[in-house]
Amino acid sequence: MNVLYIDLSKYRYEIVNRKDLFEEWIGGVGVGIQLLKEELNPNADPLSEENVIVFAIGPFTPAYPLASKTVALFKSPLTGNLGESHAGGRTATSIANAGYGAIVIKGRSKKPIYIVVENDKVHFRDARVLWGIEDSLIVGRIIAEKEKGRGIRTVMRIGGGGEKLVRYACVTTETYRHFGRLGLGAVFGSKNLKALVIIGKRSYSPKDKKSYKKIYDKIYKISLESDAMQKYHLIGTAVNILPLNELKSLPTKNLKSTRFEGAEEISGESFAAYNLGRRIACNHCPIACIHIAALRVPYEGERYFYKTIMISYDYELIYSLGSMLGIHSREGLLRLIHKVEAYGLDAISTGVCLAWATEALEKKLISEKETIVKLLFGDYEAYLKAIDYLVRQPNDFYKTLAKGVEKASQVYGGKEFALAFGGNEMPGYHTGYAAHLGYLIGLRHSHLDSGGYSIDQKIGEAKPKEIIDKLIEEEKWRQVLSSLVVCFFARKVYTPEVIVEAFKPLGIEIDENRLFELGSKIYAEKLRLKVKMGFNINSLRIPKRILETETLHGKLDKKFFDEALSYYSKIVKELI
Amino acid sequence: MTKRLVIKDIEKCVGCSLCMYACSRKFTKKAEIGVDSSGILAVSLSGFERGATVIFCRACFDPPCVQVCPTNALKPRKGGGVIFVEDSCIACGNCIEACTIGAIFRRRDGKPAVCIHCGYCVNYCPHDVLAFQEVEV
C-alpha cells in the first residue's frame, strides 16, 4: 500500500510503499496515528509550517459499499491537541483509486496554491486568484470546471473561514461533506493551501473473485434490507430532534434548557414535509443519507424574482444553529446553515460560540461594542451578521471568538456557561453522564468517539466505573471501524463477523479476537500521542452549566464526574 | 426484441456510483475492484447542489464510434450499441473522441471502456434510476 508524501515548502512529492504500516495497523486511524508519530513534532504550533496533515483510508475502500470515509489527522488549532475528523463524499474512493492508502501533507507554501493529485502525479497549481473567494461552493465550482476527472475525483477546499484561520474552520468536499470538527480548514489556510483535488482511476483484482462478489452482495443486501441503517434511509439524522426534546436532552439556548418550544418546527419531520428537495450519496454508498433542503428566497426589492438554494441539513446543524440559538424559523435556520456552509465553518462550534456570546451579552459580560450586532436568542438576522464578523474579524472580540468558546471565555468571562470539552465545542446531546464523560475523555472530544448519548438512553442507574468501561469499550471498537474505514452509520452492518468474512477475498486472514486486540492497541497508541501533545486528565474543565440543566437522567452531580475521571486517570496511567 | 440498459428516471440519481463499481465487477473471471474499466460514469451536475446523473452508451444504431475504429475492435451490436473486441484494439482513442455524448471512457491502458448493455449494474442501482428493458428494434 502506497503513501503519498507532499512537501508544500519544497513543492516536492514522493510515493513510498508502506505495506509495513498497513499490515500492522489496518489503515485509517490506525495507520494515520503512526504516520503522525513519524512526521509530526508533538509540540509543533498547529498553524505553523511544522504541522502535518494525514488523510488515510482503509482496506475496504473501494472494495465494498459504505467504506466511503476518509480519516484526517492533524494537530488541532482549536484544542492544541490531536485533531481527528472524518469525511465522506468522494474523498475515500478517489484516494483509493488514485492508488494510495494515505496522503501526508507537510510544510507551507509561500504563496496560495491548490494541489491536484492525478493518480501517480502531483501538480502544484497557482491559487492566488482563488485566494479571497469566501464562498466554498464557488471555489469548488471553479476548480471543478477547470480540472479534469469529472465523476472520479474529490475537490476538498476551504472558504473564508479557513483562510482567516477561524480555529474551527472546516474543509468542505463535494459541496456538502466536511472534515468538520477541530479546525482542519485553518490548517489548510495556514499552509496557503486552498484546495486538494484527487483524481483516481485505478482498479485491482481481488484474490478470490467469486467469494468477493458473494460477500459484496451480502453487505449490499444487509445495508438496504435490514433495519441496520433504516434511520438514515428515511428522515435522516434530523429524526433525533423530537425524541431528544422529549427526553429533555436537546440543548437549547446555550443549554439553559433541554426542551425547545420550537422543536416541532425544526424537526426532521417538518424539514422532510416542507423543505426536503433532494437526497444525494457519498461515493459507493447506497443509502444517500445526505438530506438537502430547497429554500426559495425572493430577491430583496424585486418582485417575481426568486433564487432557490439547496442546503444540506443534519441533526447536529439543527441543534447548534437551531435550538442552541433559539431559532424557530426553518427558513432562518436554513439561511444560517447556508452561511456556515459557504464560509466553511464547523456548524457545531459556530453555534456554540454564538450561543455563549448571546448569554454573555445578556449577562452584560460584554456589550454591543463587542458584538456589534445585538445578539438575541431567536433572532437569526443578527446571527447571520455575527457569522460574517466571525470570519472577517473586525474587532478583538470576534478575533477572540474565532479562536473558540474556551478562549473567548478565558478573556471575557462566562466560563461556567462556555460549553466546550477539552477545548472543543459541545455536540447536541445533553443526555446524561455518558455523553459528557464521552466528550471529556473521548480521544477527539466528540460525540462520535464512543456514542455516550446512546449509552445514556439505554442505561438505567449506573456507577461511574461502569459508564467509563462502556465508553472505553465502544471507543476501542470504533478504532477498528475508523481504521477500516467504514461509515459509522454502517456500524451495524459491519459486525466483527462480517468484517472477518469481507477480509478473506482480499487475501487477508484475520480473526475477531485480533480485531478487538487491534482496537485496544490503536486506542492506546492514540492516547499516548495525545499525552505527548499535552493531554492531561487533571486539567479537564467541566462547565458548570451542564450540572444545572436537567438531562434525561435528571440533574448531574459533580461528584459522579470526579469519581469517573479519577477511575479513568488510573486507566490512562496503566496504558501509557 | 432485445434488452438494453435504459434510464428510468434520471432525476432520481443520487450520484452514489454503485453502477460504476458493479460494471468493473460484472465478469466474475475478470472481476475488478475500482472504476478503471467501468463503461458508465456517475457525475454531479457541476456540483451536487444541482443533483447528479449517469453517462453511458445510448446504443446508437449507426454508431460513430464504430465508423472511426481503424481495427474493427468496435462492431455494431444487434439491437444497438457496440461489441468490443479487446484484442483488436490498438488504443488509438478515436472512438472516445467520436462519441457525441462522451459515453466512452479511457482506461488506464488507453483502451476504451464502454457499456455492453448487459444490465448487471441495474441490480445495484438502489434508487431505480436504471432499468434493463426490452426495446423495439
Which SSEs are present, and which pair or pack?
The complex is a heterodimer of chains A (576) and B (137).
Chain A: E1 2-7, E2 12-17, H1 19-25, H2 28-39, E3 53-56, E4 70-75, E5 82-87, H3 91-97, E6 100-106, E7 113-118, E8 121-126, H4 136-146, E9 153-157, H5 160-163, E10 171-173, E11 177-179, H6 184-190, E12 193-199, E13 203-204, H7 209-225, H8 230-233, H9 241-246, H10 268-274, E14 276-280, E15 290-298, E16 306-313, H11 315-321, H12 330-343, H13 347-362, H14 368-371, H15 380-392, H16 396-401, H17 405-412, E17 420-421, E18 424-425, H18 433-441, H19 452-458, H20 464-484, H21 496-503, H22 512-532, H23 545-548, H24 558-575
Helix pairs in contact in A: 1-2, 2-20, 2-22, 11-13, 12-15, 18-19, 18-20, 20-22, 20-24
Chain B: E1 2-7, H1 18-25, E2 33-34, E3 40-44, E4 52-56, H2 64-67, E5 74-76, E6 82-84, H3 94-98, E7 105-106, E8 112-113, E9 130-135
Antiparallel strand pairs in B: 1-9, 3-4, 5-6, 7-8
CATH architecture of the largest domain in chain A: 4-Layer Sandwich
What is the CATH architecture annotation of chain B? 2-Layer Sandwich
**Unreliable residue stretches of chain A:** none
CATH-assigned homologous superfamily of the largest domain in chain A: Aldehyde ferredoxin oxidoreductase, N-terminal domain
Domain count of chain A, please report it. Answer: 3
> How is the biggest beta sheet of chain B arranged?
2 strands, antiparallel
| Gyration radius of chain A, rounded | 22 Å
CATH class of chain B: Alpha Beta
3D shape of chain B: globular
Please give the radius of gyration of chain B in angstroms.
Answer: 15 Å
The parts of chain B where pLDDT drops under 50 for at least 5 residues are none
Number of discrete domains of chain B? 1
Please report which band the strand proportion of chain A falls in: under 5%, 5-15%, 15-25%, 25-35%, 35-45% or over 45%. Answer: 15-25%
